[in-house]
Design goal:
Length: 160
């Protein structure tokens, strides 16, 4: 396994189509279905980075921006934003695509954190992340800031 990896080595784009069983009472996609697809896509990115089993430990900043209609295509784009010692934070963006016009729209985004596990089920060290492009560097810095803010908030709430 390499000591350092670039986000572009592990990013993925996964496609689904909204079927009747994926919808809610409004006839658009059920939020839980999107969350499940996001978790799977993000887990695959984390696995590709550490080349070991991973578990989800945290999901943050999930926003449902626009609904997705029955029969539309769903594009799930996931890339590694940040790594700690054993943890990996993956940014996921979901767009819908009208299959008849090709027009796409941003629908959902979130950040999911995974921990790599060794053969005993204990957290294990993962390769470093080396962001290269401007976007990768921005995502890295933003993820770092979100982590630090979440830690400070958690400490503050625990104290009060
Ligand atoms: C993953 C697990 C073994 C880690 O155990 P742990 O005792 O929390 O281990 P640690 O305290 O050493 O934390 C390990 C890493 O996870 C991170 N972490 C743990 N909980 C976290 C949370 N809620 N949010 C963000 N990061 C978290 C820690 O910051 C640490 O990161 P680092 O190694 O990069 O510094 C344990 O939390 C677990 O089994 N959780 C349940 C996972 C699960 O069932 N998920 C759903 C199905 S996939």
């Amino acid at each position: 396994m390499k000591n350092t990896k670039n986000p572009s080595e592990t990013e993925i784009m996964m496609r689904q189509m909204v079927m009747p069983g994926d919808t809610n009472v409004h006839g658009t996609i059920f939020g839980g279905t999107i969350m499940s697809w996001m978790d799977i896509a993000a887990a695959m990115v984390a696995q590709r980075h550490c080349e070991n089993p991973v578990v989800t430990v945290h999901i943050s900043d999930i926003d449902f921006i626009s609904p997705i209609k029955l029969g539309y295509h769903v594009k799930i784009m996931a890339s590694l934003n940040y790594v700690g010692k054993s943890s990996m934070t993956v940014g996921v963006r979901v767009d819908s695509e009208n299959p008849f016009t090709g027009k796409s729209r941003k629908c959902t985004k979130a950040y999911l954190t995974f921990v790599a596990l060794d053969e005993f089920g204990s957290p294990m060290e993962v390769p470093r992340l080396e962001p290269e492009s401007e976007d990768e560097k921005r995502r890295y810095e933003n993820a770092k800031t979100r982590r630090e803010s979440a830690k400070k908030l958690s400490e503050k709430l625990t104290k009060s």
